[in-house]
Amino acid sequence: MSTSWRYTFVTNGCTSTQRVTVEYRDGPTVPCREAEPGATVTFPGYGTGDNEVLGAALCSTASP
User: Fold this and answer.
1) What is the value of pTM for the model shown?
2) In 3D, which of 37, 45, 29 has the Cα closest to residue 21?
3) How far apart are CA 47 and CA 12, in angstroms?
4) Which of 1, 37, 44, 52 has the most other CB atoms within 10 Å of its CB?
């Protein structure tokens, strides 16, 4: 994972496809993204305020 004020990049280092999201200190939620093995997906960054990206999180693999 790599973060900046504008973007957060999460790379799938696993050998299988993963569904991921990122968690923010101030609590906004962003939709899960599917990442193939070795792929990088992009999420919003921490912004210009006092927010922080806490980390990446795996999403449920169940269909809605």
Assistant:
1) 0.87
2) 29
3) 23
4) 44
Nearest to 19 by CA among 64, 61, 63: 61
Q: How far apart are CA 26 and CA 54, in angstroms?
A: 10
Integer CA distances (angstroms), 39 to 48, 51, 57, in order: 27, 26, 16
| pLDDT tens track for 6-32 | 999 999 999 999 999 999 999 888 999
pLDDT digits (tens, 9 = 90+) for 25-41: 998 889 999 999 999 99
Strand partners, 58: 20
